[in-house]
Amino acid sequence: MMLKDALERFQSQFKTEADCIAFMEETRWPNGFKCPSCSCSDAYRITTRVLPLFECKGCNIQTSLTANTIMHRSRTPIRKWLLTLFLVSSSEGSVNAVRLANLLQVTYKTAWSMLHKIRRLISRWDAGHLLSGDVEAKHEIYMKQIIVTEERMKQEKSIIVARGSGHADEVSVEHEASDRPYYKLKLVGRESEARKPLSDEERQIFVELHCQRQLCSFQFNAKSSPNRKFPYEEVKEYWVDGYHSGNTCEKYSPYGWNAAAVNARIKECPFLYPLSIIAAEGFRWINETFFGIGMKYAQSYIDEYCFRMNYGWGQGSSPLLRLSQLALTDGNNKVDEADSQRSVRGNLSRYNASAA
Ligand SMILES: [Zn+2]
């Protein structure tokens, strides 16, 4: 799905601001308004405002639709917020802050801040989800340099790509949850060069941080895993600018394939591809969408990619519902910068401490 299709789908589904408000209200309070202060469900609905405002009959506290959510006191209309959530949750609606600012007719700063808030939610959500079942993991190089010099190699970062067979989605998205894998890509904080193989301790730290205590199996270098149910599928064909070259793609080569086709296949048969392809697809998406990013926010962009892999499947409304539920969770306005940075740093400092 291209951005244009995503926009058309959004326009037909959410024609007006009122449509968007109704969707958001239904998402936040599926069983009707509930006061966040006293849990009372009896309230006056004040209709003189653009956004629905409720006054609790129990404690008289007024609560608006967006109060204490990531949209708290935002002057950006709900429809613009919903379009942003829609694009982030749709599988091919890649959008960066420049593009989003144009689409929404808002400043770059506003667009960046909206995307940033959404990414922080995603990272927090992911932090609460540990890999389960049969877990495969692989060490990859993020920002891998083609021309190798000492200076260039410093840009390379170690990253672990992992897939758990259990998809622990406990909120109300009802469909084939159990036969979908859950992915994590996590940067490994280390001072030494990224090409050095992972130590046993680095592997152990990954397991401790990102996996449930009791796994069915855990395998590094999944290609030789005896627990795999299916053989991997080779990428056999590729297209260049719509022209089918007929050549056989270099085995598992990350570039030069028909990305859309591979993407579709990954969604259809997620277990058929080696983890190196999952990681390479992520790196390609990040490069094409964001044109190179600094390391400060790299993990949150990578988490966004994983969110799309984990939830942005199919054309249904479930990924949007999931992301909207996160965005409308009470108390999310208090998620500050420090919070998400802490989880990343906590991660890295554990690695650094162990390396020292
Ligand atoms: Zn109340």
List keywords for this structure.
three-stranded antiparallel beta sheet, binds zinc ion, alpha+beta, 356 residues, 12 helices, four-stranded mixed beta sheet, single chain, 12% strand
Characterise this structure.
- There is one protein chain.
- With 356 residues, the protein is an alpha+beta fold.
- 41% of the residues lie in helices and 12% in strands.
- It is built from 12 helices and 9 strands.
- The protein has helices at 3-13, 17-28, 78-89, 97-104, 108-127, 150-153, 200-210, 259-268, 275-290, 298-311, 318-327, 337-355; strands at 43-46, 53-56, 62-64, 134-142, 157-164, 182-187, 217-220, 239-240, 243-244.
- A hairpin with a 2-residue loop joins strand 8 (239-240) and strand 9.
- Residues 170-178, 233-257 and 352-356 have low confidence and may be disordered.
- The chain binds zinc ion.
- Zinc ion is lined by residues 35, 37-38, 40, 56, 58-59, 61.
Number of domains: 2
Sheet with most strands: strand arrangement: 6-5-4-7
Radius of gyration, rounded?
22 Å
Q: Quickly count the helices.
A: 12
Termini separation comes to 46 Å
Question: Which cofactor or ligand species appear?
Answer: zinc ion
Strand content: 5-15%
Biggest sheet details: 4 strands, mixed
Number of strands: 9
> Which regions have little confidence, pLDDT < 50, spanning 5+ residues?
170-178, 233-257, 352-356
- Helix and strand element order: HHEEEHHHEHEEHEEEHHHHH
Net shape = globular
Mean pLDDT figure? 77
Structural class: alpha+beta
Helicity, as a percent range: 40-55%
